[in-house]
Design the sequence.
C-alpha cells in the first residue's frame, strides 16, 4: 500500500487540475458564446429582469395561475411536496385546491379541471402549465379583465409550445410569457 | 402514436444505436489501440503519468489492482472531509454557505467517492461553489474507478491464462479522459445553449411580474450536470436535482441527459464483447438486461400515465397522469421512463419526486435497485451482473453433473464462496438497515414525511438506494441527522467496495487458472438458454430476499388504495 500512496496523491492533484479546473473553465468559455452568456434564459420586459425557465408564483385572479408549489416559487431553494399517493392529508389538500378553484372559477365544470393545476411540481419552480390548465382559466380572466374570450383563446394558441420538432414530448405553455402577453393586450 | 411515447422510444433506441460504436471505441481505449482522439489525449496523459511518477506499462495482478484502487479512494475521502468541513473559509462561496457538520460531511464525502451521490443537503444552501467543483471532481474519478474495475474484468477474460491484468492508474485515467470527459464536454455545451447556467456569480434577486421579491440560486451548473449523468453519479447541483428548470430546462435537455446517463452502461456491455472477442456473449448479457429493464419500465410508464386513482375519484380531469412531483415540460411518460432508467443504472438523478410516484411504480424503482444489474452503473453494473453469471454457471453445472466452467476456466469452491457472499451482501445490508430503522421509531418513523405503508417504503428506499449506490431517494425523509448520515454512510462503503473486490477477486482467480479448450460437454454461455438461466437466478435471488419487505411497503399501499 505504501508505494501507492505517493503516486495516488500526485495523480489526484493532477486530475483535480484537469477535471475541477480546466474542464469547468472550458465549459464556462463555451457558455460565453451562448445567447445568455451562461446566466440562464433571461427575459427582459419593461426593464425588469426575469428568468423565463424559472416559474413564478401567480395567485392573483387577473393572471393565469401557475401550479401549486412546495417552495412558493422562491428559487433560493427547490423541491416537491414528497407526498405519497395514498397520504390522506395530501388528498384533502388536493380536494381543497379543487374547491378553491371552483369557487374562483364558478363557470368551470369540475370534470374540466386538469390535474396539473391542483398538484405541485417536482422542483416547485415549474415554469409551465398544460394547455388545458390555461384554457380552463379563460372564463375567469375574461370576466375580470373584460377581454373577450376568443382573444384569450387565440393568445393561448399563439403561445402554445408544441412537442419537440412536432414529435417528442408533451405540449405546454409558459405561464410567465402568457401573463406578460396578457398584460400587453390590456395596455393596447 | 402519442408524442410522449415516441419521445421515450427515440431516447432509448437512439442511445442504443450510438452505444454499439461507442462500445467499440471503449474496447479500443482499454486495448491500447489507435483512436481518433489520440493526438489530443496522448500528450495530456503522458504529462499526468510523468507528474505523478507512474509507469502505465507496469502490469498489475488483481491484488495490486485492488490495493491501488482502495488507496486512492481513501485519499479522496480524506480530502473530501477536509474540503466540506472548511468550505465556509475557502474561496468561491458567494452565497456564504456554512461548513458542513462532521456527520453530514462524512455521509456526503463517502456518497460521492462511491459514485452514489445520496444527498442529505440541498445544493442551494448546503455547499459552496468550491465544494461543488470538488464534488464534480469526485463524479469523474468515482465513475472512472468503476470503469477501471470493469476493465480489469475485461483483461481477465481476454487472456488464456495470466496474472497480468493491466495497470490500474492507466485504466482510471483513460476512463476519465477518453470516455467521461469528451461526452461531458459535449453534453455541457448543449446544456448551456438550452438555458442551463454556467456562472460563478451568487444568488440573483428578482421581482416577479406579480410583484413578489424572490431569490434565484444559480452557479456553474452545466459542467456538473453533464458529468453527473455521464458518470451515472446523479447528485444534483440543486435540491430538486434533474427536476430543477436550470438543471434540466426542456424536453430536449431531458433527452440529452437521458442519453448521457444511458450511453456508458450500454456501451460497456458491447465493449466487453469487442474486447474479449466474444460478441455473442455480450448480446446475451444485453438481452437479459433489456428484458428485465422492459419488465420494469413498461408497467411503470403505464401507471404514471394513468395517474392517481384517489385523485381520479375526486372527479377532475386526470388525463395528464400522476402530475404530483412531476414537471409539465417532461410529462408523465418520460418521467416514468426516467425513474426506471435512473434506478436500473445507478445514476439516481431524478426528474420527478419518486416519493410521489404511484405505489407500484415505487416498487419497480426499488426492484431496479435491489437487482442493480440491469445495465447498472458505470462499470459496476457489469461486475454485479458477473456475480449472477457465476451463480448461473454453477447451478447449470450441477444440473448436468459436471464441474462448472466459464470462459474455459473451472469455477471452484473459492470463487463460489465469494460470489455467494457478494450476492447475499446486498439484501443483508438493505434489510438489516431497514429493520433497525423500523425497530427504533425515534430514529426511523420520526423522520418520515408520510404515514403508514408509504412511510415504511421511505425507509426501505433510503437503504436500498444506499446499498445500490444509487443516490435517489424518497426525499420526504428527514435524513440529515446523525442516524441517517452514519448508518447510510457505512452501508454506502460496504455496498460499493465489496461488490468491486468480490468480482475482481473471482476474475483474477479465474484468469490465473489453466485454460480448458471448449469440448462437447462445455456449457455454452452465449446462448438464449443460458440467458434464461441467468434471468431466473436474478429473479429468484431478488424475489426471495426482498418480496416480504416489498409486501409491507408498496404492495400493501397499492391494495390499501383500492
Sequence:
Amino acid at each position: 500500500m505504501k508505494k501507492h500512496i505517493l503516486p495516488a496523491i500526485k495523480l489526484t492533484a493532477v486530475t483535480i487540475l484537469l477535471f475541477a479546473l480546466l474542464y469547468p473553465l472550458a465549459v464556462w468559455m463555451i457558455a460565453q458564446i451562448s445567447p445568455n452568456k451562461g446566466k440562464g434564459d433571461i427575459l427582459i420586459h419593461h426593464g425588469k429582469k426575469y428568468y423565463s425557465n424559472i416559474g413564478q408564483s401567480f395567485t392573483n385572479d387577473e393572471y393565469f395561475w401557475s401550479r401549486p408549489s412546495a417552495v412558493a416559487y422562491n428559487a433560493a431553494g427547490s423541491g416537491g411536496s414528497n407526498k405519497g399517493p395514498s397520504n390522506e392529508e395530501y388528498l384533502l389538500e388536493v380536494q381543497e385546491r379543487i374547491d378553491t378553484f371552483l369557487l374562483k372559477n364558478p363557470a368551470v365544470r369540475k370534470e374540466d379541471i386538469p390535474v396539473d393545476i391542483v398538484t405541485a411540481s417536482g422542483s416547485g419552480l415549474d415554469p409551465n402549465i398544460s394547455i388545458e390548465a390555461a384554457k380552463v382559466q379563460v372564463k375567469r380572466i375574461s370576466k375580470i379583465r373584460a377581454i373577450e374570450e376568443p382573444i384569450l383563446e387565440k393568445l393561448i394558441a399563439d403561445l402554445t409550445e408544441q412537442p419537440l420538432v412536432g414529435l417528442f414530448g408533451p405540449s405546454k405553455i409558459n405561464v410567465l410569457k402568457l401573463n406578460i402577453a396578457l398584460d400587453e393586450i390590456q395596455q393596447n | 402514436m402519442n408524442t410522449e411515447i415516441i419521445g421515450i422510444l427515440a431516447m432509448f433506441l437512439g442511445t442504443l444505436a450510438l452505444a454499439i460504436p461507442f462500445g467499440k471505441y471503449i474496447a479500443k481505449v482499454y486495448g491500447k489501440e489507435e483512436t481518433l482522439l489520440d493526438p489530443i489525449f496522448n500528450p495530456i496523459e503522458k504529462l499526468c503519468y510523468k507528474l505523478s511518477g507512474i509507469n502505465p506499462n507496469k502490469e498489475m495482478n488483481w491484488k495490486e489492482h485492488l490495493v491501488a484502487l482502495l488507496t486512492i479512494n481513501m485519499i479522496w475521502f480524506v480530502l473530501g472531509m477536509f474540503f466540506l468541513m472548511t468550505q465556509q473559509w475557502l474561496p468561491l462561496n458567494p452565497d456564504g454557505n456554512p461548513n458542513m457538520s462532521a456527520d453530514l460531511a462524512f455521509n456526503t464525502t463517502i456518497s460521492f467517492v462511491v459514485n452514489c451521490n445520496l444527498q442529505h443537503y440541498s445544493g442551494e444552501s448546503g455547499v459552496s461553489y468550491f465544494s461543488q467543483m470538488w464534488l464534480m471532481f469526485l463524479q469523474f474519478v468515482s465513475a472512472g474507478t468503476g470503469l477501471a474495475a470493469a476493465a480489469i474484468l475485461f483483461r481477465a477474460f481476454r487472456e488464456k491464462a495470466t496474472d497480468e491484468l493491466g495497470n490500474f492508474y492507466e485504466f482510471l485515467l483513460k476512463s476519465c479522459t477518453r470516455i467521461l470527459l469528451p461526452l461531458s464536454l459535449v453534453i455541457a455545451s448543449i446544456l448551456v445553449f438550452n438555458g442551463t447556467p454556467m456562472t460563478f456569480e451568487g444568488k440573483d434577486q428578482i421581482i416577479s411580474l406579480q410583484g413578489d421579491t424572490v431569490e434565484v440560486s444559480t452557479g456553474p451548473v452545466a459542467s456538473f450536470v453533464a458529468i453527473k449523468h455521464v458518470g451515472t453519479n446523479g447528485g444534483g447541483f440543486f435540491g430538486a436535482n434533474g427536476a430543477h428548470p436550470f438543471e434540466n430546462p426542456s424536453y430536449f435537455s431531458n433527452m440529452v441527459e437521458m442519453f448521457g446517463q444511458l450511453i456508458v452502461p450500454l456501451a460497456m456491455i458491447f465493449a466487453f464483447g469487442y474486447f474479449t472477442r466474444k460478441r455473442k456473449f455480450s448480446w446475451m448479457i444485453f438481452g437479459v438486461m433489456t428484458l428485465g429493464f422492459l419488465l420494469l419500465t413498461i408497467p411503470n410508464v403505464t401507471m404514471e400515465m394513468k395517474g392517481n386513482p384517489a385523485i381520479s375519484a375526486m372527479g377532475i380531469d386526470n388525463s395528464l397522469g400522476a402530475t404530483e412531483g412531476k414537471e409539465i415540460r417532461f410529462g408523465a411518460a418520460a418521467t416514468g421512463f426516467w425513474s426506471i432508467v435512473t434506478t436500473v443504472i445507478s445514476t439516481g438523478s431524478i426528474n420527478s419526486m419518486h416519493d410521489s410516484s404511484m405505489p407500484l411504480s415505487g416498487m419497480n424503482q426499488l426492484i431496479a435497485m435491489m437487482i442493480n444489474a440491469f445495465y447498472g452503473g458505470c462499470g459496476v453494473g457489469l461486475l454485479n451482473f458477473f456475480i449472477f453469471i457465476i451463480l448461473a454457471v454453477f447451478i447449470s453445472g450441477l444440473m448436468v453433473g459436471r464441474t462448472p466452467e466459464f470462459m474455459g476456466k473451472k469455477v471452484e469452491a473459492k470463487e463460489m464462496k465469494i460470489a455467494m457472499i457478494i450476492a447475499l451482501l446486498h439484501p443483508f445490508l438493505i434489510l438489516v438497515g431497514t429493520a433497525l430503522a423500523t425497530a427504533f421509531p425515534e430514529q426511523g418513523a420520526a423522520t418520515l414525511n408520510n404515514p403508514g405503508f408509504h412511510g415504511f417504503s421511505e425507509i426501505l428506499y433510503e437503504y436500498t438506494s444506499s446499498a445500490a449506490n444509487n443516490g435517489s431517494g424518497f426525499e420526504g425523509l428527514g435524513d440529515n441527522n446523525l442516524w441517517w448520515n452514519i448508518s447510510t454512510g457505512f452501508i454506502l462503503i460496504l455496498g460499493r467496495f465489496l461488490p468491486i473486490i468480490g468480482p475482481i477477486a473471482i476474475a483474477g482467480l479465474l484468469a490465473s487458472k489453466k485454460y480448458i479448450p471448449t469440448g462437447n460437454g462445455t456449457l455454452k454461455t452465449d446462448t438464449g438458454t443460458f440467458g434464461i438461466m441467468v434471468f431466473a437466478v436474478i429473479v429468484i435471488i431478488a424475489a426471495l430476499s426482498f418480496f416480504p419487505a416489498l409486501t409491507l411497503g408498496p404492495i400493501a399501499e397499492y391494495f390499501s388504495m383500492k
